[in-house]
Amino acid sequence: MHLKTLILENFKNYNATKMEFVKGINCVVGPNGSGKTNLLDAIHMLSMTKSAFNYIDQDLIRKDQNYMRLLADLIKEKEEKIEIRLKQKEKKQVFWNDNEYEKLSHHIGKMPLVLISPNDTDIIRQGSEGRRRFFDSMISTIKPDYLKALSEYQKILRQRNALLKQMAEKKSKSFSLLEIYDEQLIPLNQFINGSRSELIKSHEKDFQNFYSILSDKKEKLQWVYESKAGEKDFRDRFKNSLERDLIFQRTNVGIHKDDYEFFIDGKQVKKYASQGQQKSTVLSLKLIQFIVFKNHFNYSPILLLDDIFDKLDSGRMERLMSIISKQDFIQIFVSDAHPERSIEIFNNSNADIRIFEIENGEVKNVR
Fold it and tell me: Cβ of 75: how many Cβ atoms within 10 Å?
């Protein structure tokens, strides 16, 4: 699978641009602020129907314009077309071969990709919500029933929390409705927990192996999934939390409280690891994401490397490139402020290389 062409209209700082890509390595070079990351974000949006960096869709529309559009030709077993349209104050539209999706979630998995960016260490350093979001996105890409269950869980959880607040404010006793929500949430908890646990168990050795290579075999990394939903007494725990739920006016037990923790030689990565160790942990996670997608779809996902070479020391960079060269990547997009560095890094890959020089949202040169 690879991206053949991309047209951007009024996307971030791009006006009207058409680009043709190669199988192999596409280097996007230019000064900071030129639009390198924006181009990679457009590719991410073609895959996930949303930006990797902007939470508000309207912020993707070029300043002083009222719409944006992305149109791409994707080569899988045959040529496919993806189109995304967005107008100010209107709902986003996503099309696959000119047919509009009723639900955007139906597009997930059609164009799998892995994005590695400098902000990825936030997965480690920040709260549990970001870690859950990372793993949920990965599992949802390969299991539509997981995405459906997760969406249903979040909807019912909001309803239950609203009821708890209402019961506290009005001192009402709507226990029969609460019971209905509970009987819906408990099996959803157990299904989601099972899917998360399965992913961890299936790829724990790969995760440790990737980290071992990146750290030059100096340390051992442990991966722990923390959840109450998989325990035998989960139903009792959930039910017994009612008094506390009523006090705090929210649901205190469930998979929305789960976390993923990482330990190097027994010490928590989030609290005690160096920046280099945190980067290696996150890179290992991203490489697992690649393996998961490749095994499920039976072809390599697209790899996006956004400005990472300035953030990695030479040793980790060389070891990362060694891993990548062995994983049979079909298409890679690299953003870099230094074209000579990218050429040198990928010089021994035997892959086609195309360099796009970007300036102020325009392609100034292709070589």
Answer: 15
Question: What is the spatial distance between Cα 62 and Cα 59, in angstroms, rounded to a whole number?
Answer: 8
Which residue has tokens 């970001």? Answer: 130
SS (H, E, C) the chain: CEEEEEEEECECCCCEEEEECCCEEEEEECCCCCCHHHHHHHHHHHHHCCCCCCCCHHHHECCCCCEEEEEEEEECCCEEEEEEEEECCCCCEEEECCEECCCHHHHCCCCCEEEECHHHHHHHHCCHHHHHHHHHHHHHHHCHHHHHHHHHHHHHHHHHHHHHHHHHHHCCCCHHHHHHHHHHHHHHHHHHHHHHHHHHHHHHHHHHHHHHHHCCCCCCEEEEEECCCCCCCHHHHHHHCHHHHHHHCCCCCCHHHCEEEEEECCEEHHHHCCHHHHHHHHHHHHHHHHHHHHHHHCCCCEEEEECCCCCCCHHHHHHHHHHHHCCCCCEEEEEECCHHHHHHHHCCCCCCEEEEEEECCEEEEEC
The residues near 111 (Cβ < 8 Å, ≥ 6 apart) are 1, 3, 46, 47, 74, 82, 302
Buried b (16+ CB within 10 A) or exposed e, 78-97: eebebbbbbeeeeebebebe
Question: What is the rounded distance in angstroms from the CA atom of residue 85 to the CA atom of residue 100?
Answer: 10
Q: 168 falls in which pLDDT band (50, 70, 90)? A: confident
**What is the C-alpha to C-alpha distance for residues 269 and 123, in angstroms, rounded to an integer?**
11
Q: What's the rounded Cα separation, in Å, for the pair 107 and 81? A: 12
pTM above 0.85, yes or no: yes
26-41 per-position pLDDT tens digit: 999 998 899 999 999 9
> pLDDT digit string (tens) for 218-264?
888 999 999 999 999 999 999 999 999 999 999 999 999 999 999 99
